[in-house]
Design brief:
Structural class: alpha+beta
Strand content: 25-35%
Order of helices and strands: HEEEHE
Mean pLDDT: 95
Length: 93
């Protein structure tokens, strides 16, 4: 899947807002606010449940990495997430 198509599919899910659990959250991190070198995916099955995290790291911007964006789309689909939340911008690490 090309990176633009993957980004659009993720954005479409994020735009729906909170629709209940299971919930998936995406947070981008980097050394500067311009380039995100890692993304943390947090999956919460139910309210009060222990969240599970998975991190993807790249030397380049993960938001423009076709492989990572495609994997995020597959994670969202396979998790059956009702809600997909995304932190705005890039948090500095």
């Amino acid at each position: 899947m090309n990176v633009d198509k993957a980004k659009k599919r993720i954005a479409k899910q994020v735009k729906k807002g909170f629709k209940g659990y299971p919930q998936l959250s995406l947070a981008y991190f980097g050394k500067t606010s311009d380039i995100a070198t890692e993304v943390v995916v947090t999956f919460t099955f139910a309210e009060g449940a222990e969240p599970q995290e998975q991190k993807f790291v790249s030397e380049n911007d993960v938001r423009e990495d076709e492989t990572i964006q495609s994997v995020l789309v597959k994670i969202i689909d396979r998790a059956g997430a009702n809600s997909v939340l995304e932190t705005d911008g890039v948090s500095i690490i």
